[in-house]
């Protein structure tokens, strides 16, 4: 995105700029002739470098680099060749950017302001917009079309106001504004980077292994899901939106004493379906405990919490995982192949969100290929399926137009608050 | 190969030319850009050839043996009135009955759509709140738009509490926020923006975790993949491209460019092996990720206006599209035919989502209302 220093860097540069403009110790400013107009308070590139050398006791090369940063980030702008945001160590004229247009003050640059700026350019002189500006102008016209009248009105107002000014002032203001937009909407940024990235993507795509359409599409649609689709097959006992009866939702909350048959069936469609359902996961855990391999699921869950949890807790969570699952003699030691284990142990010295990915995937596929198929054949699952509820379909009401009372339900936030309260009470009691 | 770092900001070409007489620095810029574009086009054509080699059957041919669908009846079951202006976005809560919606006048409302009661309302400091999302826990919502930010509001239990007081600013883009989505938890948010990028953020700290560069224009939509190893998502943009990204590396791993205009909406097929898109070119399309190509186009000569949003029914057999001509079209995903059309809203349909358990779908419109619909065979 557009060039922008971080806030600390910005403040340091601003301090430097203020020092440069100090009436006693700052730069000597003079009038600069630009074609037939005289611009006040300008300075040469050479002068800037000399001042920096003396102020900060640095060599010429460093002063050139430092001054270059001030130009790059828009605190100083060139009067000649405004698109060239570099510091020339010669008689090239420069000016201080007004604080109003400092990137740190006006971040992010607003779409509306940019549209007004381009509209002014367009109105002022036909054909003054550059190619990339024309593209953006028409894109903006489309995107914020609803405020376009406002844009044109503002542009006209601002042009009218600027005509009242002295020519020198007008030129200065135009330069300041142009410099601001060159920094915040640099030409060619998106165009270049996106084309370069696109070439990379195409190259990678050419190297990838593709699957024949007949194979992909053959397995595309699974009949089994159709039976679970309320739109295709209806739902039992009734669709709450049709009958105004929430029984269907009550029977399918996250934790119920007895789940519905359709729900238990779904656990057999894929390992992901089983794990995505809290009850399914709970049942699977019971099974794994019988098989003495529950540590696999505990490990997987702990890894998920790291991947999707707060950045601030990553380090401590990774420590916990190491202690409980990976350290020699750990209480719930997981059996990972030595190559992955070595790589993981090395990686957790510098913990980050994805450091346990390889290990987690290894355990995931282990469960998927081994424990999961056996679970589906187990008595535990079969019994669950057998005792699962098949709700009776609600007979259509005798008076179909009579609306049932629509009951409200506790919001999820309330449910969380209640659970926390109960937990607190238990803890207090224990 | 190209000096990528130099191109990243086009700065290389902003240096002054050797002779001050050269009127503009645009010349070297345009030349190199043209050269790069040619290279990209050549590779694209080659890629299309490779993709075509493995395309031995059409989806509707494979679907010939699948039973056809009967007639459908679509009915509005709830109308939610309360927004004072165009509804731009909505999202379902995991509890299958609550929704959050956002509109042009800056209002974000949380409803119990089942009772039609408004439970929370927030006024954003900006207009055109184009994006909103419900947190997986149901305890917070995220939203943003012309403010270029994505903010998270924890949902208070106290109805009198001002939600704006606990607001947390998470994402910062340099242009409008077009879409946002929580990932598997309340802790991370994925955003897309008019600045051409997508980004992944840590909610707690507001830290940028990863950014995704590659679109050549505004990114308008995104959807997270329901995959078992997680970590990919698809985005669609004004550059007519749909890109699939690796969340971990920030790389674009697949790219599709077959639409003829802006892609307004993308949605994964329930299995995660494919995704659908809706575009200003008045078509919806289906892309298979293993075949790495477009495998179906859903269009009709009589459908002229663009698609604003798409979503699948629970099984993926049906694809719903909300259109700019105020209608909703329902497509048989396998056979490619349109099974139903609905005239319900009095203005453009801007957003459409199927409920988490597939029992209904909700639409939001420029006519200021939201509607919950059921479909019966």
Automatic annotation (TrEMBL), chain A:
Q: Where is the RGS domain?
A: 270-385
**Pfam families for this protein:** DEP, G-gamma, RGS, RGS_DHEX
Per the UniProt entry, what are the Gene Ontology biological process annotations, in alphabetical order? G protein-coupled receptor signaling pathway; intracellular signal transduction; negative regulation of signal transduction; regulation of G protein-coupled receptor signaling pathway
Q: Mind listing the UniProt keywords for this protein, alphabetically? A: Signal transduction inhibitor
Q: Where is this region: Disordered?
A: 403-430
| Compositional bias (Low complexity) | 408-419
Name recorded for this polypeptide: Regulator of G protein signaling 11
The species is Oryzias sinensis (Chinese medaka)
Taxonomy of the source species: Eukaryota, Metazoa, Chordata, Craniata, Vertebrata
From TrEMBL, chain B:
Task: Spell out the residue ranges that the record assigns to WD repeats.
Answer: 80-121, 170-211, 212-255, 256-297, 307-341, 342-377
Gene3D superfamilies cross-referenced by the UniProt entry: YVTN repeat-like/Quinoprotein amine dehydrogenase (2.130.10.10)
The Gene Ontology biological process terms listed for this entry are:
signal transduction
Report keywords, A-Z.
Repeat, Transducer, WD repeat
Q: Name one Pfam family in it.
A: WD40_Gbeta
Repeat found in the keyword field: yes
- PROSITE patterns registered for this protein in UniProt: WD_REPEATS_1 (PS00678), WD_REPEATS_2 (PS50082), WD_REPEATS_REGION (PS50294)
Entry-linked InterPro entries: G-protein_beta_1-5, WD40/YVTN_repeat-like_dom_sf, WD40_G-protein_beta-like, WD40_PAC1, WD40_repeat_CS, WD40_repeat_dom_sf, WD40_rpt
Family of this protein = Belongs to the WD repeat G protein beta family.
Q: Its quaternary structure? A: May interact with RGS9; this interaction stabilizes both proteins and increases RGS9 GTPase-activating protein (GAP) activity, hence accelerating the deactivation of D(2) dopamine receptor-mediated signaling.
What name appears for this protein in its UniProt entry?
Guanine nucleotide binding protein (G protein), beta 5a
**What is the originating organism of this protein?**
Oryzias sinensis (Chinese medaka)
């Amino acid at each position: 995105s557009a060039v922008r220093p971080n806030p600390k860097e910005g403040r340091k540069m601003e301090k430097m700029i203020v020092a440069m403009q100090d009436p006693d110790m700052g730069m000597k400013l003079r009038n600069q002739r630009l074609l037939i107009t005289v611009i006040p308070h300008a300075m040469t590139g050479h002068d800037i470098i000399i001042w920096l050398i003396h102020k900060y006791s640095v060599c010429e090369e460093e002063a050139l680099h430092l001054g270059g940063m001030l130009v790059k980030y828009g605190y100083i702008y060139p009067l000649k060749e405004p698109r060239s945001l570099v510091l020339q160590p010669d008689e090239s004229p420069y000016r201080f950017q007004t604080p109003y247009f400092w990137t740190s003050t006006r971040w992010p640059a607003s779409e509306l302001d940019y549209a007004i700026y381009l509209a002014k350019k367009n109105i002022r002189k036909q054909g003054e917009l550059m190619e990339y500006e024309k593209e953006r102008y028409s894109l903006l016209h489309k995107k914020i079309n609803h405020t376009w009248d406002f844009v044109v009105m503002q542009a006209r107002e601002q042009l009218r106001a600027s005509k009242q000014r002295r020519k020198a002032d007008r030129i200065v203001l135009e330069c300041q504004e142009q410099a601001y937009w060159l920094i915040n909407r640099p030409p060619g940024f998106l165009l270049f980077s996106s084309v370069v990235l696109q070439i990379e993507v195409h190259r990678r795509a050419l190297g990838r292994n593709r699957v024949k359409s007949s194979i992909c599409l053959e397995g595309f649609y699974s009949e089994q899901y159709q039976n679970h689709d309320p739109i295709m097959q209806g739902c039992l006992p009734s669709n709450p939106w049709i009958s105004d009866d929430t029984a269907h939702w009550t029977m399918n909350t996250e934790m119920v004493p007895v789940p519905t048959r359709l729900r238990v069936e779904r656990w057999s469609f894929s390992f992901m379906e089983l794990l995505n359902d809290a009850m399914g996961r709970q049942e699977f855990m019971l099974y794994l405990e019988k098989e003495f391999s529950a540590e696999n699921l505990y490990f997987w869950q702990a890894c998920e919490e790291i991947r999707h949890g707060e950045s601030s807790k990553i380090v401590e969570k990774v420590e916990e995982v190491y202690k409980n699952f990976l350290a020699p003699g750990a209480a719930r030691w997981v059996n990972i192949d030595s190559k992955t284990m070595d790589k993981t142990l090395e990686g957790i010295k510098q913990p980050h969100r994805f450091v346990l990915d390889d290990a987690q995937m290894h355990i995931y596929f282990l469960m998927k290929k081994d424990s999961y198929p056996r679970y589906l054949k187990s008595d535990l699952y079969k019994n669950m399926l057998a005792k699962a509820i098949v709700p009776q379909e609600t007979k259509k009401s005798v008076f179909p137009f009579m609306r049932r009372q629509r009951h409200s339900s506790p919001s999820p936030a309330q449910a969380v608050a209640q659970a926390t309260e109960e937990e607190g009470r238990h803890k207090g009691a224990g | 190969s190209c000096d990528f770092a130099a191109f990243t900001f086009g700065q290389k070409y902003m240096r002054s030319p050797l002779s001050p007489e050269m009127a503009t620095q645009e010349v070297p810029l345009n030349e190199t850009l043209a050269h790069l574009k040619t290279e990209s086009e050549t590779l694209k054509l080659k890629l299309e050839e490779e993709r075509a080699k493995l395309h031995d059957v059409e989806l509707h041919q494979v679907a010939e043996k699948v039973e056809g669908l009967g007639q459908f009846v679509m009915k509005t079951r709830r109308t939610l009135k309360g927004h004072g202006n165009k509804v731009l976005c909505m999202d379902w809560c995991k509890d299958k009955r609550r929704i959050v919606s956002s509109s042009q006048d800056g209002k974000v409302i949380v409803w119990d759509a089942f009772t039609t009661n408004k439970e929370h309302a927030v006024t954003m400091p900006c207009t055109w709140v184009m994006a909103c999302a419900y947190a997986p826990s149901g305890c917070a919502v995220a939203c943003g738009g012309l403010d270029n930010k994505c903010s998270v509001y924890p949902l208070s239990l106290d109805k009198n509490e001002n939600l704006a007081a606990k607001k947390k600013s998470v994402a910062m883009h340099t242009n409008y926020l077009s879409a946002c989505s929580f990932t598997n938890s309340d802790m991370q948010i994925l955003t897309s923006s008019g600045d051409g990028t997508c980004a992944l953020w840590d909610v707690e700290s507001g830290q940028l975790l990863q950014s995704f560069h590659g679109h050549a224009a505004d990114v308008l939509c995104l959807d997270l993949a329901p995959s078992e190893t997680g970590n990919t998502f698809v985005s669609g943009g004004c550059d007519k491209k749909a890109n699939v990204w690796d969340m971990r590396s920030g790389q674009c791993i697949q790219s599709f460019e077959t639409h003829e205009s802006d892609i307004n909406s993308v949605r994964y097929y329930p299995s995660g092996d494919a995704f659908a898109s809706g575009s200003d070119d008045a078509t919806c399309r289906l892309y298979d990720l293993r075949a790495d190509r477009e495998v179906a186009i859903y269009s009709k000569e009589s459908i002229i206006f663009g698609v604003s949003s798409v979503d699948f029914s629970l099984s993926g057999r049906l694809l719903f599209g909300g259109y700019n001509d105020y209608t909703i079209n329902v497509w048989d995903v396998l056979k490619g035919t349109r099974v139903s059309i609905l005239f319900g809203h009095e203005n453009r349909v801007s957003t459409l989502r199927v409920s988490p358990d597939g029992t209904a779908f909700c639409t939001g419109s420029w006519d200021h209302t939201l509607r919950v619909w059921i479909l019966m065979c």
